[in-house]
Amino acid sequence: MFVDSHCHLDFPELIENEAAVLALMADKGVTHALCVSVKLETLPGIIGLAERHANLFASVGVHPDNADCEEPDEARLLELAAHPKVVAIGETGLDYYWHKDAPEWQRARFRTHIRAARRCRKPLIIHTRDSAADTLRLMREEGAGEPGGVMHCFTETREVAEQALDLGFYISFSGIVSFKTAESLREVARFVPADRLLVETDAPYLTPVPFRGKTNQPAYVRHVAEAVANARGESLEAIAEITTRNFFQLFKDAKPS
User: Fold this and answer.
1) Model confidence over 143-168: pLDDT tens digits?
2) Which of 1, 30, 112, 122 is least buried, going by the fewest C-beta atoms within 10 A?
3) Helix or strand or coil: residue 126?
4) Strand order in 197-199's β-sheet?
């Protein structure tokens, strides 16, 4: 069986076809998925999904790209994280691709999420783009290794992966690992220890080969796993078993149904 460790089932492209998306997910052996929050205004929809379906889980957080939205403080994150279906804090982190001025508000928000994760003892889901050095620096300064977490949709270098691993983090690969141009990322996939490996779709984005051009969905996570398995010279069954075990090891509040 497979687990999609990061998707956005509440986004319009997927929630409008909720029954069909979940049916195909089941048909392809994807037993569980983590629906990740990007802003607090849409969190009720994510919580609703997780409440309707025993095999779906939720996170709470505000994506670093989102500026025009509710800005959470620690107390607000802790209040929302107390819901029994919330298993993680995030997605949070830094993104200097869209915010090239490296705004201080983004770094302050990231620190708030890390502090909340430490207090509620739930793992972090971290996004980093064109910001690896600052992301790792803030993780160290704020003690992100205490709650641990995952570097989601990893596209950085082996050196960045090594530093994240040293902090106790997991590394998650998305459909990008299946792209023809992603050999350097497949090298990282070969490097990551088996007990720190996760797979995800980031649906509805980053659709893996052979479905590029279509809307991504959790059912396609098996193709991400296949690309990782091929890169590592391991069987698809082995990667499915490893990444499923790792998911429930990291997200301890997610209970297999």
Assistant:
1) 999 999 999 999 999 999 999 999 99
2) 1
3) strand
4) 2-7, 30-35, 56-60, 86-95, 124-129, 149-151, 170-173, 197-199
User: Structure pTM?
Assistant: 0.97
**What residues contact 226, with CB distance under 8 A and at least 6 apart?**
178, 236, 239
Beta carbons within 8 Å of 79's beta carbon, 6+ residues apart? none
- For 231, other C-beta atoms within 10 Å of its C-beta total 20
- Residue 180 burial (CB < 10 Å; 0-12/13-18/19+)? exposed
CA angle 188, 192, 198 (to 5 degrees): 100
Exposed/middle/buried for residue 233 (C-beta within 10 Å: 0-12, 13-18, 19+): exposed
Bridge partners (DSSP) of residue 199 are: 173
Give the model confidence (pLDDT) of 7-48 as tens digits: 999 999 999 999 999 999 999 999 999 999 999 999 999 999
- 3.40.50.150, 3.20.20.140, 3.30.2350.10, 2.40.50.140: CATH of 2-250: 3.20.20.140
Q: How far is CA 123 from CA 32, 173, 246, in A?
A: 17, 17, 13
List the structure tokens of 4.
């999609």
CB 150 within 8 A of CB 250: yes
